Amino acid sequence: MKSIKKIVLSTVAVLLTQVVPQTAWAQPDPQNPIRQQLDAYRNRMLQEKLFVHTDRSFYVAGELLWFKINYVDGTFHKPLSLSKVAYLEVLDRENRPVLQAKVALADGTGSGSLFLPTTLASGHYLVRAYTNWMKNFSPDYFFEKPVTIVNSFRKLELPVQKDTLAYDVQFFAEGGNLVRNLPGNVAFKIVGADGKGIDLQGVVIDQANDTVARLKPLKFGMGRFALTPAEGRQYRAVLTDGRGRTFTRPLPTVQAQGYTMQVEEAGNEQLRVTVKASTDAAPVYLLTHTRLAAIRADQQTLRDHTASFVIDKKALGEGISHLTVFDANRKPVSERLYFKRPQRRLAIDTKQTSGLLSTREKAVFEVTAKDETGQPALADLSVAVYRIDSLQMAESGDISTYLMLTSDLRGVVESPDYYFTTTGTEVTEATDNLMLTQGWRRFRWDTVLNSNSITNEYVPEVNGHFIRGKVVHGETGQPGQNMGAYLTVPGKHILLYGSRSDHDGRVQFEMKAFYGPKDIVALLNPKDSIYRLEFQNPFLERFSATRLPVFDFSPAQKETLVARSVPMQAQNAYYRENLVRYQYPKVDSIPFYGKPDEQYRLDDFTRFPVMEEVFREYVPGVMARKNRDGYRIRLLDTPHKEFFADNPLVLLDGLPIFNMDKVMTIDPRKVQRLEVVTRKYIVGPLVFDGIISFTSYKGDLAGYRPDAKALLADYEGLQIPRDFYAPRYETAQQANSRLPDLRTLLYWTPALKTDAEGKARLDFYTSDEDGKYRVVVNGISADGRVGSQQSTFEVSGVLK
Hints:
about 10% helix; Immunoglobulin-like
């Protein structure tokens, strides 16, 4: 496993040199150790990001949830091709997974669907996605999107709303700390029970009840106030809600010594960073970077306990930048984030060219993609077209807002579109409040400054899904070291994977092109019979701090829910066969060992009832001899023209059999084919003296029972993609079909490509449901430009 990690990590380093260019420093200080350490961290710890476009955000149980995954590097957001598997889950409010899928990634994308069973309870759920490599980092880095699922077959059991002061109030000192006698800013965020910001007002008072500041949110429950903590004073906030109820919350602890920082607009497209410190006449450093790129370093000496830096905003990358202050010992002492609204973008436009639409009529749209200069762009787009009702709110949070903003912030950002589309001084201040409250770092400086000591438990899945396990002692539970382990998928298509346990007993099987549900068998060599093999959960059991709001559903929406549920039932009743069409991947049917050196179809020979006779009569390269310890089987090493010293690897429908006596009890009359590899063969870290492979007629092990210590399991491989089905009414007979077409999701595609002129065409047929429909498009170009677009159109119930 160590060798696999070395190969993968070197692949990561090579890929990083292609993705992340060298960055420039503001001062000619190429030997700056902080820069060197950050570069080393960047080269070791590739940042991956996933964005998931779901067809909608409100569903009824019984529907399909369609999704498209965009996989990019975390710095420049260019499509990646390193990891080949994404893990997607739907979690309930208690972080229990209700649905899980492994999704194949290729050329920076993946797609699939999830059937929402009618066993699900109504409520808010969280869709999250990550790669194996991303498991090394906090789950707060994973993609997350709230969705709502209502089960119309169950009575809604809504929780009783308690009349309590259910407000979450948090305070954040700019730069990280409040320091005695040093001026600073304190940002705050007030959230209600529904998870949205709330406009509560209040005051900050000291222990003498003197008012030192007033609190008034600017937007989404966020605001700020200035405070210079005085010696011997303690502070608390007193807030009052709209019903006149008052409550108090403490402010962050005041430090006796330390540093503060303040960032403010300085005019002429510049930022001024002011650092205050308890000490004086000492150097401080300011390091600025945008997602580990566009790095800048400055040094100043504290005079009168103050140092001031000026940053040209043009030098910053678009999106979120980190501003970190280091003391004279190059220890990070203060940090905050700054957001620069992106100008580099993918402009997407959808134009309906089919005129006014009625039911069961063809809709045609022309889609164009351009960069910010108006030049055509080659783009990979995903498109959803669905009916608008009071249940399905407008989609908030697209690929642009996610990659450039919310993916680098803590928790759920309310109305992220606001920070990209609104103009004026208010949005500038509101954006900075967001940076001060939900802003955080995607890494910790202690790991950055000591990146050489980082050991990663998970490696990128560069070829396929890893099935991981652990070898443990059957009685003590202690790990079994340096033991050969085997994993096979019994059947006519012979698949075998090998691994050797490390010092912690861990084994890892790389499953290339492993799709769909499979019966797998894992086993150790019987010589290690006191040990057993355990599988590990491939899905991470650590979760982010995101908390979903309490589910609430208005009785006034009952009729709308019925109008949504009936189409779902009609689809499942009349179009069930069309909803379960899959795009089965092309899988190489050749055995893992390739073309054998010798192959025998036993029907072509005289049938013998005993396996020893089969070997002796027409498989001359196999020598089976019985002694007092039982049978021994030797293969002729063809290249060296002598028999191997040890038993070969013997397989029955892909299942290893290590006991040669059991091999000799196999009934030859149930075997269709016998293949022999007459040379040494390597399976992962394991080496064998040739291979003998039996294939039964039915691929069912011919009645053979695996060893009692073998681990048998039903295992779900990569998801097999499902075809999106929508009827077409191209002929009069089709248009006059009496089958009801009540679709509310008219169209979905995860892979619409624009041509060299930046154009693409999509067409589909409307259903029997009239009303207003929304078209949602998300897209990305090869150079990392991202964009989205939403538009609407009407479908009339009056036929033309």
